[in-house]
Design a protein that fits this description.
mainly beta, Nuclear Transport Factor 2, Chain: A, six-stranded mixed sheet, about 15% helix, globular
């Protein structure tokens, strides 16, 4: 959780289904801890599907596909995703970005039909 905490800006917020909208890094990490307490073995796996950055402004958007182990590819080998995350980031300093917004959207799609940023 400590490493995850550094991923979020102090003023971060997001729509974290099924918990809903949460504001502030402290509240986000606290909610993650409480939500995961009954399932300490639960992990998320993901692929970054798209990143669009405005280097001059120091902001970026990122689309991440959630990989579901055991159901990660269609029969033709195309990657499958069970949900996606839309994220906004802000550069804190050179080479270090933090999340300012994250939202989780369940729903299956394949790599050829990924949502757009």
């Amino acid at each position: 959780m400590h490493l995850l905490s550094n991923c979020f800006a102090d003023d971060a917020a997001g729509d974290f289904q099924p918990m809903g909208i949460i504001e502030g890094r402290h509240a986000i990490i606290g909610s993650f801890k409480e939500f995961r307490r009954p399932w300490p073995w639960m992990q998320h796996f993901a692929d970054v599907l798209d990143v669009q950055a405005d280097e001059e402004q120091g902001v970026a958007e990122m689309l991440v596909g959630r990989i579901i182990p055991g159901n990660s590819h269609a029969q033709d080998g195309t990657p499958l995703y069970g949900a996606h995350y839309r994220m906004r980031l802000r550069r804190k300093y050179e080479g270090f970005w933090q999340l300012t917004w994250s939202e989780y959207r369940p729903g299956w799609f394949n790599a050829n039909e990924a949502p757009e940023l």
